[in-house]
Amino acid sequence: MKQPQLSIIELAKALDEPLETLERFLRERRLTLKKRDGLSLFCELCGKPIEEGKRCPQCEVRMQKIAQKIAEERKKTSKDKMHSLATIKKREEDYS
Length: 96
Known about the structure:
The protein is 50% helix and 4% strand. It is mostly helical.
């Protein structure tokens, strides 16, 4: 459906979908809106307002740098470890 003039509320009514579903689509970058009508998304790391996705461009770059450092560290060790968002945030503090 291409109707750029629709707000999120109008789109939800037209599609008969809950607002939560459309918000999830915005976070997953499966939907882009020009008219927001009060719907606000915020970066999950710093809290700045964003248009779509989960993180602002600045936090996205920081996360990529941290992920690269973790990957480099993993190459040095033989243990495979998963890192949670809390671990990544902690490492960000350590590297800052």
